[in-house]
Amino acid sequence: MAGLWRVSDAAVATASVCRTTPWVRRLTALVAGVVWLAAVLAAALPYEPIFHPRPPRGWVGGPAAAYRDAATQKVHLYMLYNPSATTNVSAAWYHVTSSDYAYWTREDPPTAISADRWYDTDGVLSGVMMNNGQNTPVALYTCEDSGAMQRQCLANPTSADVAGRRLFNTLVKSPVNPVIGADSVPQLVSRGAPHDPTEWWTNPAASGQWLIAFAARQSTSSGLRSSVVVFATSDTSLQGGYTFSHSLYDDTSGGGGGGVRLTAQTLERPDFFTLTGAGATSGAGERFLKLSVAEWRRDLVVYGAYAAAASNAGQYIFTADTARRATVVDYGCLYGGKTFYDPIQRRRRMWGWIQEDLAPSSVGANGWAGMQTIRDVVYDTTENKLRFPPIREMQALRASRVAWSTGLTVTSAAATTVLTGSSSLAKYQEVIATFYIPPGVFDGSKYFAANPPEFGMRVRASADASRYVTVAVRMPIANATPTRGYRQPGTVLQEVAVSDDVDAAGSCATQCLQAVPLCEAWNLRLNASGSYCSFLSTPAPLEVDCTAQTSLPNVPLLLVERAASSSIGSLTSVGGRAPLTVAHPSYVKLHLFIDDSAIEVYKDDGTEVVSSRVYLPGGDSLTGVSLYTRNMDAITADVTVFTMSSMWAAAAANNAATRANSASVL
């Protein structure tokens, strides 16, 4: 569900810092830094995760770039970083490395690029790092000057480092920076300069030419347009020679599915990729365009084809498949994801930024903000969509199996306790539960005007079960026909006109279900100009409106509910539509990773994902797990719970030494 106070207050408040004048930004950062410095004098940081990459202190935003070195087999992750405060000011690229995706090392020096040139004094922003045509790594990043003007800049590892240890912990800026100017795309609007580069790829229409794409904002005869624009270079070293080529995609091209456009939303952080090797697609030539939609604070993947434009055979464009609904990467607080290709494993993976869900003043007191998560990218030929499952390397962080059971009976009478909350248990857990459900209840064939059925689990629970976080799969309260004379208030995702010569209500229902990725309800309203469908992400109690009718898709919802958690952050539910899978409609698998204040929920191996945040005072004893149902007959379930250890290599070595010493004593 979009429209949470986290989005409107916390996320937008930090985003507004980037849109004020430069001197206000610097003053804001300075004041925040004073508050932050006082907070971090404490020895321990509150609500701190142990298996999500992040600096020990300061703010991190989205992934800046990721690179797997085939020579050393090391994974290099660079993330946006403010070392001085917990506010959204990207002053550097923070650098961590791993050889196995399980255990990570914070590099020294910790920052590979810092904001120290006229062209990037106000931002070393997102970028890309990959090998050029000479098999040498190159980084390109969006650089922002003190006037908030964005350009594109290059940074390279030194020749000695490439030939030697290949640490890539210091990237040297090109003397010809910036290599792409702010005025290099026709019809740009203010602050609409190209930003957030994709990976490079070779031009299928011109041998020896490389292409790279960026998000941009343009003004056309049809109004404002958010675009993904392409630049070309014939320099195989990728060090220069960039010229504007054409638009790869714009928000008039559809992409929500069913031909619904993204309604001039602000598009960020595009990724343009195909899948080969592990996780490959079923369709030859199929391409994926990942977009971060700023107004929705959600990442989407649009499906389509990459082929020569009808008007120009020398320009290849992305054409969205209007018959398919875009996939939501995460219904929760993940944003700004970035994929990369691992040449060792021959698979594509996605890094994403898990944001805070806490008032800015409390974030500053904590002394740190933000973290990264990593997921696989897999095309599911049965479900006909991408999945984003957890990476298998997370199994290496399992410390011990503390609960497991098969064939548990779960009833509506009382929750079935799996673990009782206790400070003797770690608050870092992996929970895997499979629920076997009866037919005809969650498949949309029945409507529930009240008391909808649901099942799920309660985690981070107290010993007396009075405090907990609920992870639920629930049918909505819905009717088979639209409710006339009422409308649903809530967050409007977009609004489209409906022709008077069609079944207007049926059109709204179809578009909500099949076209608009985050739609959980719709209103049909009449005014002097005609009929309009409004699509909402946050349904609310009905309000009287004699000109309207309303309804919502009869599809199960995957929800993380925090109302009973006593979190000091947002208590609003977060989630989205999560139908039963085609492959196994008789059961649902919920796979959770609980890392103190971070909770990630993967339904059916990443077919749908929800990430959430909870900040629990006295949380050391809030470690209980239980299963429950409501408004339905008894079901059975299998469940396993592991405690998790730290991902940081130094901590892992200490843990191993402790275990060895304990064994020698025994």
Please provide a written account of the structure.
- With 666 residues, the chain is mostly beta strands.
- 11% of the residues lie in helices and 43% in strands.
- It is built from six helices and 40 strands.
- The protein has a six-stranded antiparallel sheet, with no helix packed on it.
- Residues 1-43 and 657-666 have low confidence and may be disordered.
- Belongs to the glycosyl hydrolase 32 family.
- The chain crosses the membrane at residues 27-47.
- GO terms for molecular function: hydrolase activity, hydrolyzing O-glycosyl compounds.
- Residues 427-640 form the Glycosyl hydrolase family 32 C-terminal domain.
- This is Glycosyl hydrolases family 32 N-terminal domain containing protein.
> What is the helix content?
10-25%
The average pLDDT is: 88
Residue windows where pLDDT falls under 50 for at least 5 positions = 1-43, 657-666
What shape does the CA trace take?
A: globular
Q: Main β-sheet, in a few words? A: 6 strands, antiparallel
Query: How large is the count of helical segments?
Result: 6
- The total beta strand count reads 40
Q: DSSP strand (E) fraction?
A: 35-45%
Terminus-to-terminus distance: 52 Å
Oligomer: single chain
Strand order of the largest sheet: 24-40-26-36-37-38
